[in-house]
Amino acid sequence: MGTKSKVSSIKEKLHKLEKQLETIQKDCSHKNVSMKFLNLNKGVRWVCDECQQPTKIPSPEEIQKWIKK
After folding, report:
1. Residue 52 near residue 21 (C-beta atoms within 8 A)
2. Predicted confidence (pLDDT) per residue in 38-56, tens digit
3. pLDDT above 90 for 1
4. 35 — phi, psi (to 5°)?
5. Where are the domains of the chain?
């Protein structure tokens, strides 16, 4: 298997996995959430404990409380 076909295969698998993840996150009820730092661009977000989808942006007060823990 050549490099080009390996790359194509990997990209196809990634695409299928991303679609699976989207479906799981869409069907999740997001009952339990925790505040987490995602990255420098997105910062801190409320994230579902089950499916790991960011659900909302915390208020400045919530962030300050989270930082003090």
Report:
1. no
2. 998 889 999 999 999 999 9
3. no
4. -85, 135
5. 3-68
